[in-house]
Amino acid sequence: MDGWVDYLHVSFRGEHILFSSLRLGSFWTFVLSSLLVGAICLFERFLTALSNQCFQPRWASRSRILSAGWNASLYGLVTLCRLLYMLLVMSYQVGIIAVVVISLSIGQFFVEYCNHPQVDQDIHVQEALLPGSPRHRQNRTKPKPDSIFIHPYHSNLARADAAAFELGISGDTELVTGIRPADDQGWEHGKGRDVARELFGGG
Fold first, then answer.
1. d(CA 71, CA 60)
2. What would the mean pLDDT of 46-57 be, rounded to a whole number?
3. Which residues cross the membrane (predicted)?
4. Contacts of 14 (CB under 8 A, 6+ apart)
5. CA distance 164 to 172
6. Where are the strands (E) in 56-110, listed by range?
7. Collapsed DSSP state (helix, strand, coil) of residue 142
């Protein structure tokens, strides 16, 4: 190849850009080559997005053979585009390499933008991560609640108080309040066996 070198360079040495008639010998041929390179890279990103989304036209979904043929054709086009811009990068021309990278990045940006719909920011809780931020200081100044309600089913303390109240071991507590008959003396110390026999109907 006339003018081809195997190292990075920025000069126009007459490298062929895919076609024999397109030689990189001036700035205008570089502009024309950049348009061709950009179109190939954007087309490859578009086909890759279709392949990743398993897109198929209606006629291709009628049978397994048509579906497999569509997917294979799409894969072949994607592979061809990737081989083409690989050959373009092998020209070692820094401008062409930059055009390939920028074009692929632009194509990927539109792919990501279309695949991820806009998210409503109102549904997310915005929490400050840094302790010194104003939002964090504002959250720290909120008053502490006087009491926090915990359902007795989820509170071991409340369940223990309820069991003690039912057995007559203790009286009313902060979490358990009940009405006990006046003649109920409770479970006195040293009479646990007698009270247990009476509760379970023993002799």
1. 9
2. 86
3. 27-47, 68-88, 94-111
4. 2, 3, 23, 24, 25
5. 10
6. none
7. coil
The reported pTM is 0.52
| CA gap 119, 83 in Å, rounded | 36
Query: Of 190, 163, 194, 168, whose CA–CA distance to 179 is shortest?
Result: 168
b/e 32-51 (16+ beta carbons within 10 angstroms → b): ebbebbbebbbbbbebbbee
CA gap 82, 98 in Å, rounded: 16
pLDDT tens digits, 25-44 = 889 989 999 999 999 999 99
d(CA 143, CA 169): 37
What digits encode the pLDDT tens for the residues 149-172? Answer: 656 556 666 666 666 666 666 555
**Rounded CA Rg of the chain:** 39
Structure tokens at 164: 């003690």
Quote the CA–CA distance of 75 and 48 in Å, as a whole number: 8
